[in-house]
TrEMBL record:
<comment type="pathway">
    <text>Glycan metabolism; N-glycan degradation.</text>
</comment>
<dbReference type="Pfam" id="PF17753">
    <property type="entry name" value="Ig_mannosidase"/>
</dbReference>
<dbReference type="GO" id="GO:0005975">
    <property type="term" value="P:carbohydrate metabolic process"/>
</dbReference>
<dbReference type="InterPro" id="IPR017853">
    <property type="entry name" value="GH"/>
</dbReference>
<comment type="subunit">
    <text>Monomer.</text>
</comment>
<dbReference type="InterPro" id="IPR050887">
    <property type="entry name" value="Beta-mannosidase_GH2"/>
</dbReference>
<dbReference type="InterPro" id="IPR006103">
    <property type="entry name" value="Glyco_hydro_2_cat"/>
</dbReference>
<protein>
    <recommendedName>
        <fullName>Beta-mannosidase</fullName>
        <ecNumber>3.2.1.25</ecNumber>
    </recommendedName>
</protein>
<feature type="domain" description="Beta-mannosidase Ig-fold">
    <location>
        <begin position="811"/>
        <end position="891"/>
    </location>
</feature>
<comment type="similarity">
    <text>Belongs to the glycosyl hydrolase 2 family. Beta-mannosidase B subfamily.</text>
</comment>
<keyword id="KW-0964">Secreted</keyword>
<dbReference type="Pfam" id="PF22666">
    <property type="entry name" value="Glyco_hydro_2_N2"/>
</dbReference>
<feature type="domain" description="Beta-mannosidase-like galactose-binding">
    <location>
        <begin position="43"/>
        <end position="218"/>
    </location>
</feature>
<keyword id="KW-0732">Signal</keyword>
<feature type="domain" description="Mannosidase Ig/CBM-like">
    <location>
        <begin position="712"/>
        <end position="807"/>
    </location>
</feature>
<dbReference type="InterPro" id="IPR054593">
    <property type="entry name" value="Beta-mannosidase-like_N2"/>
</dbReference>
<dbReference type="Pfam" id="PF17786">
    <property type="entry name" value="Mannosidase_ig"/>
</dbReference>
Amino acid sequence: MNHVVWSLACFYLLAVPFLDSAFASEVKSSNLGVDIISLNGKWQLLNSNSSVSLSAEVPGCVHTALQRQGFISDPYYRFNDLAYRWISLDNWTYTTSFTVPTHVREKGKAVLVFEGVDTVSTISLNGVTIGKTDNMFRRYDFEVTEFLKDEENILQVWIMSAVTYASQRSHAHTEYRVPPDCPPPVQKGECHVNFIRKAQSSFSWDWGPSFPTLGIWKEVRLEFFNTLRVLSYTTSPKYDSEHSSWNVEVELFIDVFVATKGLVHLSIPLLQSEAEFQLSLTPGQSKNSFVLQINQSVSLWWPFGHGEQALYDLTIDVKLEGGETFSAEQMVAFRTVELVQEPIPSSPGLSFYFRINGKPVFLKGSNWIPAHAFQDQVTTDMITILLRSAQKANMNALRVWGGGVYEQDIFYSLCDMYGIMIWQDFMFACALYPTEKDFIQTVREEVTQQVRRLKSHPSVVIWSGNNENEAAIATDWFNIPVAERPLYVKDYVNLYVENIRDIVLQEDSTRPFLVSSPTNGVESEKEGWVAKDPYDPHYGDTHYYNYYNDCWDWTAFPRTRFASEYGFQSWPSFSTLSKVSQSTDWDFSSNFSAHRQHHADGNQQMLKQAELHYILPNSTDPVQRYRDTIYVTQVMQAQCVKIQTEFYRHSRSEIVEGEGHTMGTLYWQLNDIWQGPSWSSVEFGGKWKMLHYWATDFYAPLLSVGVEDKGDLLIYAISDSHSEQHSVKAKVKLYSWSSFSAVCSLESNVTTIKAGSTLVFQHPISALLTQCGNCTRRSCIAVFHLSSPEGQMISPHNHIFLSSPRYAEGLKKPNITFTVNGTGDAQSFFVTLHCTFPAVYVWLDVDDIPGHFDVNGFLMLSKKATVIFGAWRPTTADEITANLHITSLRDVY
Ligand SMILES: *[C@@H]1O[C@H](CO)[C@@H](O)[C@H](O)[C@H]1NC(C)=O
Ligand SMILES: *[C@@H]1O[C@H](CO)[C@@H](O)[C@H](O)[C@H]1NC(C)=O
Ligand SMILES: *[C@@H]1O[C@H](CO)[C@@H](O)[C@H](O)[C@H]1NC(C)=O
Ligand SMILES: *[C@@H]1O[C@H](CO)[C@@H](O)[C@H](O)[C@H]1NC(C)=O
Ligand SMILES: *[C@@H]1O[C@H](CO)[C@@H](O)[C@H](O)[C@H]1NC(C)=O
Ligand SMILES: *[C@@H]1O[C@H](CO)[C@@H](O)[C@H](O)[C@H]1NC(C)=O
Ligand SMILES: *[C@@H]1O[C@H](CO)[C@@H](O)[C@H](O)[C@H]1NC(C)=O
Ligand SMILES: *[C@@H]1O[C@H](CO)[C@@H](O)[C@H](O)[C@H]1NC(C)=O
Ligand SMILES: *[C@@H]1O[C@H](CO)[C@@H](O)[C@H](O)[C@H]1NC(C)=O
């Protein structure tokens, strides 16, 4: 980390060691004379009839506490999500006690700060109710000056079952229904989650369990002050195109008890920029804005693959007339972002792409879901592994999907450093929402707080109001009679446009806002915010799923402007599943396999899609067959997402029948919430599926893509780079399944390409096969890459099957053997492979040894190949040898 954000909370966190039981008078005198007492640590936890009593960590949740104290075993194990349902149906009370030294208590104002309560709670101090919460996405500050005692204080947080609350709120909403009532039965979830401001996926999703958590999931502390305290601050660089210079707007949000004056000093030492401002404060909460002009040229922040991620430190120093001081350091990065929606020649509709620092940038990435059902268990390491994995796969963007949580600060700081652009949804998904006054009010506060928390991050490039709720109304997911529709549209506009959009536009002018995803953007706005067809490929973004079509048939994909969701399921690896299952579960038709699958017909869809092109495993050893089936689902998923993504990448420069100019691909989904089948490319625990390895190639900055179109083999050269031109030629070889030498080689003429896609090779396949003498569609495969005019390889190897591998002629069991040797570094190893016959989709799996290979799931068209395993912890060649399983397509039948 090359920057540190110092805030009051952060300062205290670092300075105060773990505290046990009653929080004795551990007080820190910090900036501006604010004293802070942390209430993190061990609290007492009790269920409603007092049959369960235990100590519980804060921040934390009830499930985690029960598990850590041995009351329950791993909630993810087998069918435990059902067995532990009672936890979420009960109400729970957290209790702690603390003392406050007299000199601290005598300060003018005391505030109890909850950074996050999950979710519905009543909070009492020394028996007096001091506040209530109903939104896990908000921070709550309660003034407690009058309620503190000199002796021991008792703080209680009574948390009501989220399931009970949602149900009561839904039943209280009698005028009209707000669907959906319940998730589909296959999800085994709870009902009415749209009535509670809580991670919507916590009541189950089609990739995750139902664990409607309860807890105090973020920090708790007391703040004492005589004059004022700083609540938060933001920094927003703004480009002044008239003067070709940058201004940094700094906002200080201050809670003032006694009127005062002071000076604010801002500086960015690296840019020799500084300025001083007068501060004049009256009691109450206020926003104070200052603008620091930058008179020097700055290094811009670029998305990964497009340049550096330049980050600067800005220091904020406040000095009050009473002598108290405050100082903080905040990271600043300079970049502009525009969402361009304008007419395209020869196409109806409008473009939809991001312009970063004035350059069009193709967004390559995926969608992010919560990394754990129990958010208190999400560690910095877990987030780092996932984001590093995204960057290693050449991703430059992730969408933080609207059914989960606004991620923790470190997530966005890492994205700033890695150059990963964030499409940030507000947390509303796949439902209609109520618009009662108190609901709107709590959402307004949530949105204000989250925008202020996240707007300083350059990685956040867009806000989006919700996930799929425009589509839900437009395409009538919930059987709403036509006559009632205007009522729902009115609620929709009220929530997302008149409230959320309104606040975002007021709070942040440095990035675009979209009301929904998918949406037609400005066209949806014209149509009253709910377009007739939000999936229209001529406008905005689209989500597209089709499991029954053959995914090799690219003609079925919408040639969209921006693909923000698409994907296919697969099962995670055997080693990941075996942590939550037992041997009786290891069968594709076991109760466990059915239970874990939360998407109706999902297991059948995977096999049917796989069967179109691959022979399904038929080992007589059931565990081997189970492992092989997992492998085949991963092959299917990787191949399907590859074909669809490559289609979108080469559609970047094309308009076909009015469709095209695709400028973004975010496949569904990057990560997993537990060990189960899903659309993810990285498993729970961080292990890469085959898809993730392949993403490294299909997201390469310079890529060749092969497509069969009307009997011709087309090869496109695709480049992301807007600054360079490349002279390239495509080199194409045909290999027969029965030999290791290419049966023929061709190459294209040299073509100069720039950002976008260029057709560099076109040849009728029948002529190719004839030219190659002995080749048929079934006996040969075409492999290709781009090279420089001098013949140097400049893009990853790619290939295209000329018929399904299930009909491959001459493909034999490859008999792959291996040796592992060290490189001298305990985290890096060579694996040398030998095979007797060419092999398809060679897959190396080292069970639980964390790390990843440099390539995996590859074609092996030579007798020998060497791959490198990079471990995330020290290991040995022997350990790898003992755990390595190698599978290829021909090995499973
Ligand atoms: C107390 O609550 C627990 C957990 O909800 C429940 O299993 C138990 O039956 C209850 N006991 C009584 C006496 O109601
Ligand atoms: C939890 O609290 C609610 C609201 O007071 C109540 O209706 C419900 O019965 C309580 N549940 C249990 C298990 O005590
Ligand atoms: C930048 O230039 C403006 C106008 O010339 C000047 O007022 C300001 O003091 C300069 N700022 C810094 C930080 O040097
Ligand atoms: C699978 O579940 C069904 C229905 O719950 C049950 O009857 C059956 O015994 C279970 N089978 C196994 C092998 O556990
Ligand atoms: C390469 O260029 C030559 C000369 O312009 C042309 O005759 C030939 O058809 C081209 N070859 C291919 C494969 O496009
Ligand atoms: C073509 O196939 C025949 C029969 O399999 C074989 O004898 C011959 O060597 C092959 N020719 C080439 C050019 O590979
Ligand atoms: C498999 O490979 C090993 C080692 O390369 C070799 O000794 C053996 O003969 C091969 N087996 C077959 C059936 O080809
Ligand atoms: C390990 O394997 C690599 C690749 O096959 C080889 O180049 C290297 O010499 C080997 N090192 C040792 C110590 O055997
Ligand atoms: C599995 O299927 C293959 C191809 O159809 C067949 O050759 C093989 O005998 C089958 N194996 C078993 C164990 O049924």
